[in-house]
Specification:
Layout (H helix, E strand, L loop, with lengths): L2 E4 L15 H13 L4 E5 L5 H12 L5 E7 L2 H9 L4 E7 L2 H8 L3 H17 L3 E7 L6 H14 L3 E6 L6 H15 L2 E6 L6 H10 L4 E4 L13 H11 L11 H12 L16 E2 L2 H9 L17 E2 L7 H10 L6 H18 L5 H11 L1
Parallel strand pairs: 1-2, 1-8, 2-3, 3-4, 4-5, 5-6, 6-7, 7-8, 9-10
Helix pairs in contact: 1-2, 1-10, 5-6, 6-7, 7-8, 8-9, 12-13, 13-14
Length: 369
């Protein structure tokens, strides 16, 4: 089974301008656990008081999900995580030459030495340790393998492969994960960013290459263009690949709406899987198909993700949609009335730049009867 690690409370909250309260972080963690998410990255304890308070409270709830804390490869970070009662420790270090030299001002031996010190300390504390390879997509493959093998030898349970600035595409990422798995026989966690719109595709490619863990955020929250969205990854795995992640999919849309409100960010109407209009149909050809069999123009039933279907009356509507909507509103329209209403609808929808409300349609029908 592919396992989801949701990092809405860590990487998602790193979205510029997003700041969850302690209460919101706890509520989101509870909802993620209720939805069946097996791993929740709750935040970065080293940030300080409120962050530690939220993580400690989440860890103390004894949720059915594993609670993970993110750390730099520094003893004081790990100590902060342990103080929160978290025993699932993630330790991250850059692995590309660019990051090591430009960001850290160090070299590869320094990275390996710091990795050894941090992982050894966390393991001695009795923690389960995963190791992050920041900027893995731009790393030298030989060093990436060396880094992974060092982490494995130290007792790390898996390696997080980070496409930190989203520069991977599915084919190259798959090849690198296959190489990494073949050289290390280590569990790989796929962490993708959406800078070029390929976060979900790259996450799926990682699974096809043998990765068993995928990092997500609700509605794709995250720095710059965001991360792989939980709802997209789960449904792509379920519908396209036949993989059951154990997530209760009916909670996906309510989760996205709750988190978007907490983040003070609007949820785009066309957002894949959970947007307000992704199960709305206006085009006459599409509505005709939907009324005959929803699977003609929907890849899955909206109820699967906690959504509902709607028929929108607008410029592109046809007689089938008008007749359906009029019957829904209590009329028994003949062909003549339907066509007269359709003529009025198209003109008004064009002038108002949008679909018609039910009361507007009733007004037309009443005047034309």
């Amino acid at each position: 089974m592919v396992k989801i690690l949701d990092t809405t409370l860590r990487d998602g909250e790193q979205t510029p301008g997003v700041a969850f309260t302690v209460e919101e972080k706890v509520a989101i963690a509870v909802k993620l656990a209720e939805a069946g998410v097996p791993y929740i990255e709750a935040g970065i304890p080293a940030i300080g008081h409120d962050e530690k308070k939220a993580i400690k409270e989440i860890a103390g709830l004894c949720l059915p999900s594993e609670i993970v804390a993110w750390n730099r490869a520094e003893r004081r970070d790990i100590e902060s995580s342990l103080e929160c009662g978290v025993r699932n420790i993630h330790i991250s270090l850059p692995v590309s030459d660019l990051m090591i030299e430009k960001k850290l001002g160090k070299d590869k031996p320094w990275v390996l030495k710091r990795l050894e010190e941090a992982v050894a300390f966390a393991i001695r504390s009795g923690s389960t340790v995963s190791v992050g390879a920041e900027d893995a997509s731009r790393a030298d493959m030989e060093f990436l393998i060396e880094y992974a093998l060092a982490a494995k030898a130290l007792g790390a349970c898996r390696l997080r492969y980070c496409d930190t600035v989203g520069i991977s595409e599915p084919f190259s990422l798959r090849g690198r994960i296959v190489g990494l798995r073949g050289s290390t026989d280590m569990d790989i966690e796929i962490h993708t960013h959406n800078d070029f719109g390929m976060a979900t595709a790259n996450a799926i490619a990682g699974v096809m290459a043998g990765g068993r863990f995928i990092d997500t955020t609700i509605a794709g929250l995250g720095e710059r263009a965001g991360n792989a969205p939980l709802e997209e990854v789960v449904m792509a795995l379920k519908v396209i690949m036949g993989h059951d992640t154990g997530i209760i999919t009916q909670m996906l849309k309510p989760l996205a709406e709750f988190v978007s409100k907490a983040a003070n960010r609007s949820l785009p109407e066309s957002k894949s899987i959970v947007g307000g209009k992704v199960f709305a149909h206006e085009s006459g050809i599409h509505v005709d198909g939907i009324l005959k069999d929803p699977s003609t123009y929907e890849p899955f039933e909206p109820e699967v993700v906690g959504a509902t279907r709607s028929i929108v009356i607008g410029k592109h509507s046809g007689t089938k949609a008008i007749a359906y909507k009029l019957r829904e509103l209590g009329y028994e329209p003949g062909e003549g009335l339907t066509r007269r209403v359709l003529g009025k609808v198209r003109g008004l929808a064009t002038s108002k730049k949008g679909g018609l409300r039910d009361d507007e349609l009733i007004s037309f029908a009443g005047k034309l009867l």
